[in-house]
Amino acid sequence: MKTKRKKPSYAEEPRNEGWGFDQSKALTRAQQRALGLPSPSAAAKMTISRKPARPARINIRTTHETIAGLRARAEEAGLPYQTLAASVLHMVARGELKLSLAPGN
After folding, report:
1. Which of 5, 21, 66, 103 is 20 to 30 A from 72 in CA distance terms?
2. Is 29:37 a contact under the CB 8 Å cutoff?
3. What is the pLDDT of residues 15-39, one digit of tens each?
C-alpha cells in the first residue's frame, strides 16, 4: 500500500538559514528622516524619471561620392555604412571628434 508523501513546509526556511528580517538592525523613522531616506509609502510612489532614448531618424542630402567614400571606409572597418555614419555623428555630438570649420580646410 502506498503512503501519501507529505509536502515539505518551507515557511521556516528563511529564518533557519539566517535570511529573516532582524528588526533590531532596522532604522527608526527618525533615523530615516535624518538620513534623508523616503518613507516606504513615498518610495513605493516614486517612479524612474529617465526614459530610454528612442532612435531618431534624419534625412541628409549628400553626393554620390560622399556615400561611396563612406561605404568604402565602412567596408574597411567591417561595419554597415549607416552604422558608421551614425557613429561619426554621435562622436561629433559628444565632442569626441573635432571638426575644423575654418574656410579653406
Report:
1. 103
2. no
3. 777 777 777 777 888 888 888 888 8
